[in-house]
Design brief:
Number of domains: 2
CATH superfamily of the largest domain: NAD(P)-binding Rossmann-like Domain
Distance between the termini: 22 Å
Length: 250
């Protein structure tokens, strides 16, 4: 059995992970960690009381880096669903994971459909020189753009050097109207509104045609197969992984 701890257990995603782990035949939930009425208030408290094979983190952007450092320095394999890590922080976690021989899997999105959307966008990037991303989330999401949008842009940028080919010089009469400019000039637009859970559109254009690749999450249950896949993976493979697509390909 895999001993699983969930950090951020009382949040909306954390509660779904708790249910999924409890329903998995090969896993045991050993700790529900949350600063708000959790069984344990911190990862350190939990580690001192129970044996943890894997910690799943769905907390906040402000705390995830320190949580990950603690886990990797204390021999706890970690699956990270919390977004908001900077590129430099991800690189540091990769180095620490490899140095310590402790697994770390970071997935901006655990939905298999969303992962396929990112892969399809990467494929399309070979054939279009103009593209933008629109991501839409509920209005309680703190970081913008989403980790999924950032990861999508990074994958697309590996296929094309410039996504604003032929654009005229632009002047924003309202700052931010053109969104944020990410890798290789891919503009990302973030929408925050009640009613959404998580959606993303990748728009590609060329003369006479538009290609739209879109994914919508209708509930948080759709992420759980990916989370459980990641938990099993980090138990068996002592390495660093960024993106669920890496283990879906295995």
């Amino acid at each position: 059995m895999i001993n699983v701890a969930v950090c951020g257990a009382n949040g909306k995603m954390g509660q779904e992970v708790v249910r999924a782990v409890n329903n998995a035949e090969d896993m045991t939930l050993v700790a529900k960690i949350d600063i708000f009425d959790g069984e344990f208030a911190s990862i350190k408290d939990a580690k001192e009381s129970v044996n943890i094979d894997v910690l799943v983190d769905f907390t906040q952007p402000k705390s995830i880096y320190e949580n990950a450092l603690y886990c990797l320095n204390n021999g706890i394999n970690i699956v990270i669903g919390t977004t908001g890590l900077a590129d430099e922080q991800i690189e540091e976690l990769k180095k620490l994971s490899e140095t310590k021989g402790v697994s770390c899997l970071i997935a901006p999105n655990f939905s298999t459909g969303a992962v396929l959307m990112m892969k399809f966008a990467q494929m399309a990037s070979k054939y279009f020189d103009n593209a933008e991303i629109i991501e839409l989330h509920h209005n309680q999401k703190k970081d913008a753009p989403s980790g999924t949008a950032v990861k999508t842009a990074l994958m697309m940028a590996g296929e094309n050097a410039n996504f604003t080919t032929g654009n005229c010089p632009e002047v924003e009469t309202i700052k931010g109207a053109r969104g944020g400019k990410s890798y290789n000039n891919i503009h990302i637009h973030s929408v925050r509104m009640p009613g959404y859970i998580a959606s993303q559109e990748v728009l590609f254009g060329s003369s006479g045609q538009i290609l739209t690749i879109r994914h919508d999450s209708m509930n948080r249950e759709c992420y759980m197969n990916g989370v459980l896949m990641a938990v099993r993976y980090v138990c068996e493979n002592k390495n660093f992984v960024y993106g669920l697509e890496k283990i879906m390909e295995d």
